[in-house]
Amino acid sequence: MSIIFFLLLLSSCTSCVLSADVNDGLVLLKIKEQLGNPQELSNWVEGFQYCGGSAFSNNAQMQCDNNGRVNYLVLQVITASAPFPEAICDLTELEGLTINSLYNLYGPIPSCINQLSNLHLFDIERTGLSSLPELLFLNHEKLHDLILSSNAFSGSIPASLSTIPTLNHLDFSNNSLKGTIPPDLVHGQYATLFLNDNRLTGEIPKCYLWVPLGSIYARNNKLTGDPSFLFNKENIYAIDLSHNDFEFDLSNVEISKSLRSLYLGFNKIYGNIPQSIASADHYIDLDFRNNKLCGEIPQRQIFPWQPFEASIFADNKCLCGSPLPPCKNPGSAP
Ligand SMILES: *[C@@H]1O[C@H](CO)[C@@H](O)[C@H](O)[C@H]1NC(C)=O
């Protein structure tokens, strides 16, 4: 009986035989070894059932395709003090990789990662990894989500990322990145760009006017220039440019119908609060704190019962009028 069952299993599983030369189980054991055999992976042993089997734990999850190849791998909260385990580059069918909260992982992300041409999701968060290959995912054809937040990356954003036509969600927040923002980093509907909490300099490239950007978060960098071309962009939804060195005249800026949040606090922005802000026919979350703005604040027309909060205008040069104290000479700058 069991022999017949075994034969049935064998015949229904010719692909296992075909792919016998690539044994992802051995690759996983190599990864474990390169991580210094951490205790969290103690159930990874020779012959273990890594495809949807008993190896599933809080710290490690794997998923396999029909050929028994690992296509998703999650490693999280593992106390491994080691460089990036290069054996990961041998999991050539990987579509999704997540490494989260391996705080003591150190050194570079190796360039062999570029071999993983099936990746849709590459998510490395909360590690001590400190550099990226200069050519990262050049002309990659599938990558959709690239999340590299809260690591220790220094150097600049690899310009090669501009060559990925499918990249829709890019998150570099909370690193130590320097240099300028490359053009055309994200593509497609509702594209999002998280660059906050770095040391980026220069201007936001004008080409982002034509990229279908949904949200841009660039808070807490050293960016300069006039990014107001983004505010009236079709389908723009959220903009956070606070805590930078932007210096421009806000007075005549127009606001997109789709915009729902505009955070510009802690810059060097001058001029008046534009009329477009007050006449917007939808609610926008705003922050203009700590700039060099001046003049009478225009009164909200569509939601007069929902006045602006005073705190969003705090610490400017000479803003006045409700919700701040009245202007000395109403209608003109004091
Ligand atoms: C920034 O990254 C560090 C190191 O990974 C982490 O400890 C910290 O919580 C992160 N901060 C935020 C706001 O995510």
UniProtKB/TrEMBL annotation:
InterPro entries: Leu-rich_rpt, LRR_dom_sf, PGIP
Keyword GTP-binding: no
Protein localization: Cell envelope
Superkingdom in the source lineage: Eukaryota
Keywords, alphabetical: Signal
The UniProt record lists the keyword Calcium: no
Main location group: other
Stretches of the chain forming a coiled coil according to its record: none
Cleaved signal peptide residues: 1-19
Protein known as: Uncharacterized protein
Species the sequence originates in: Rhynchospora breviuscula
